[in-house]
Amino acid sequence: MKIALATIFLLAAAAKLAGQQQMVEEFGVLGLGQQFRFFTGLVEVTGAALLLWPRTAFSGALLLLAVCAGALVAQVGPLQGDAAHVLVLALGVAVLAWLVRPAAGSGRS
């Protein structure tokens, strides 16, 4: 599950960072500038990488949940797109976050 989610977010980040036309257009509609496209791509790469190590998987999942929250707002707001794919990804990341959450009182961060 970790590898599948990391791969999905790495592919999404690659599209953003490579300047795929659809990504450029979507971020143009958002009105936040193309620098935000690069920032989002870098956050996705960071979150995906964090998912792959047990000690940082929970942090990576939380970071990617934040990305999903932003994507959901964008899809139902300015993009007026299909939010179902964002909800499915968010659900997968939320389940993973639950599964890898630090145990209470473990001192693990």
Condensed summary:
With 109 residues, the protein is mainly alpha-helical. It contains five helices and no strands.
The largest pleated sheet is described as: none
Spatial shape = globular
Strand count: 0
- Helix tally equals 5
The pLDDT mean sits at: 94
Strand content: under 5%
What's the SSE pattern? Answer: HHHHH
N/C terminus separation: 21 Å
Topology:
Elements: H1 2-17, H2 21-30, H3 34-51, H4 57-76, H5 84-100
Helix pairs in contact: 1-3, 3-4, 4-5
Q: Key features?
A:
109 residues, mainly alpha, 74% helix, globular
Your description of this structure?
The structure is a single chain. The longest helix has 20 residues, at 57-76. With 109 residues, the protein is an all-alpha fold. The two termini are 21 Å apart. The chain has one domain (2-100). It has five helices and no strands. Helices cover 74% and strands 0% of the residues. It has helices at residues 2-17, 21-30, 34-51, 57-76, 84-100.
